[in-house]
Amino acid sequence: MPDTELLALQTDHIQTLQQRYQKALLAHGYDGLLISSGAAPMRYGDDQSYPFQGYGPFLHWTGLAGQEHSWLLIRPGRTPVLWLYQPVDFWHANLDLPEEPWQQAVEVRFIQHREAPSMERAGKLAVIGDPATVAQVPGDHNPGRLLVDLEETRVHKTPYEIACLVRANEIAVCGHRAARDTFLGGGSEFEISLAYQRATGQREAEAPYQSIIGVNEHAGTLHYQFYDIDGPARARSLLIDAGVRFRGYCSDITRTTPGAGEGRFAALVQGLEQLQRRLCGMVAPGVDYVAIHRKTHDGIAALLSAAGVVSGLDDEALVEQGVTRAFFPHGIGHYLGVQVHDVAGKREPSPADAPFLRLTRTLEPGMVVTIEPGLYFIPSLLAPILDGPLGGHFNHAVIDDLRGCGGIRIEDNVVVTDDGARNLTREAGG
C-alpha cells in the first residue's frame, strides 16, 4: 500500500476513534479525557532511565511510540488537542514530526515543560496513564469502568490499523529470513540478533519486545532472554520470536529452523507447521478462541504419537490426563495491536485447562490475533510425567535426544474478516 493511501486511512482512523471515545465519555458522564503518553522511569540510584515505548491509548491515537511527557485531550464534538514535549535541549534530540494529513484532524501544540497543560475549563475530566505521571493532574485518575470501555475501542481494528500491521509483518519477515540464514551459516544468538536488527532497520530498544532467540536447548525456555556470543559446536535448532513496531503497531512472529542432519526434529517442525496452518484456518467470525486452543492439544497429541515420543496411549487420553500440557504449556495466542499482548482479551477468566490463555472471547470481524502452537522438551515439566505412572509409555531415548533441540513454536498474525481470516504473516512471505 502506498504511503499516501496509508496516511489517508489514518485520518479516517482518528475520526473513528473520535466517535468511539465520544460514546464512552458520554456514557460515563465525562466532558473530557486527558491521555498521558507516559515517561520512562529512572533506574534506582542512577541517572539513566529505562527504555520507553509509550502508553497504549496514546499510541492508539498518535502512533508516536517514543514521545515522552506529552498529552492528548479528547472532548466530545471538539477537535483533539495534542501537546508534544519539545524542550530546548543540547543533551538530547527531539523526536522528528514530519508533516502528515492526520495533523489536520488534531490540533498540535508544542510545550517545553513536562507538566500537563492547564485543564481549568475542561469540565468533568478523566485522566489516564501511569499513576506516577498523572499524580498531580486534577481529574478522575484511571476510572475503572471507563478504562474497560476504552480498551474495547481497540478490539476491532480500523483499516488504518490493519494496514500498519501488514507493514509490520512485511518488515519482520525480512528480519526472520536474515536470522534463519545467519543460523544456518553458523552464527551465534548474538549474531542472529544483529542480523535481525539490520534487516528490519530497527534497534532492539525500538522493537515491541526483546527478541527471543534460542539456539538448541535454549529454545525450550519460552521467553529465553540471553544471547550467547559464541556459536554452538553443533547447531541443532533455532527458535526466534521477534517482531517490529510500525507507526506504533506491533508484529509478533515466531519461526523454528532445524539444523542440518536433524531429521527427527525437522519432521516434528514440519508436523507442527501443518497443525499451525490448520489452526489458522479455524479463525473466523463466531469461532470460540478457546476452541482453537483446545484443538491445538488434540494436534499435539497426534504429533507425539506419530513421532514415536509416546505409545500405548490414545490421543484423547494424552489430552485428558494433562500430558499434552507438559509439551504445550502456554496459550494458543492473544490479541495484537499497539501492544503485543493487546488489551480486552479476557472478559471471562481463562478456563482451568488453559490457565495461561490470554484471549477467551468469540472472534468477530476486525479482531487481530496470533496463532502460535508450540511443542517443547522442558525438563522441569516432563520429569513428573516421565517419572510417574505413565512414564512407561514414553520413549525416553527419543525425548533425551530432542531435549537438545529445546522446542518448536510457529506463530502468525491473523485478521478476522467478515467471512473468514487473513493471515498477514503468510501474505508477507513468512
Automatic annotation (TrEMBL):
Which InterPro entries does its entry note?
A: Creatin/AminoP/Spt16_N, Creatinase/aminopeptidase-like, PepQ_N, Pept_M24, Peptidase_M24B_aminopep-P_CS, X-Pro_dipept-like, X_Pro_dipept
- From the Swiss-Prot or TrEMBL record, give the protein name: Xaa-Pro dipeptidase
Q: Which residues bind Mn(2+) 2?
A: D241, D252, E411
A Pfam match is: PepQ_N
Catalysed reaction, written as an equation: Xaa-L-Pro dipeptide + H2O = an L-alpha-amino acid + L-proline
Task: Give me the comment on cofactor binding.
Answer: Binds 2 manganese ions per subunit.
Keywords associated with the record: Dipeptidase, Hydrolase, Manganese, Metal-binding, Metalloprotease, Protease
Q: What is the recorded function of this protein according to its Swiss-Prot or TrEMBL entry?
A: Splits dipeptides with a prolyl residue in the C-terminal position.
PANTHER family the record matches: XAA-PRO AMINOPEPTIDASE 3, XAA-PRO DIPEPTIDASE
Where in this chain does the record put each Peptidase M24 domain?
Answer: 164-418
Q: Where is the Xaa-Pro dipeptidase N-terminal domain?
A: 11-148
Q: Does the keyword Manganese apply?
A: yes
EC number(s) in its UniProt entry?
3.4.13.9
Q: What HAMAP family does the entry give?
A: X_Pro_dipeptid
Tell me which family the UniProt entry assigns to this protein.
Belongs to the peptidase M24B family. Bacterial-type prolidase subfamily.
- Positions annotated to bind Mn(2+) 1: D252, H334, E372, E411
The record's section on PROSITE patterns has: PROLINE_PEPTIDASE (PS00491)
Cofactor(s) this protein requires: Mn(2+)
Q: Which Gene3D superfamilies match?
A: Creatinase/methionine aminopeptidase superfamily, Creatinase/prolidase N-terminal domain
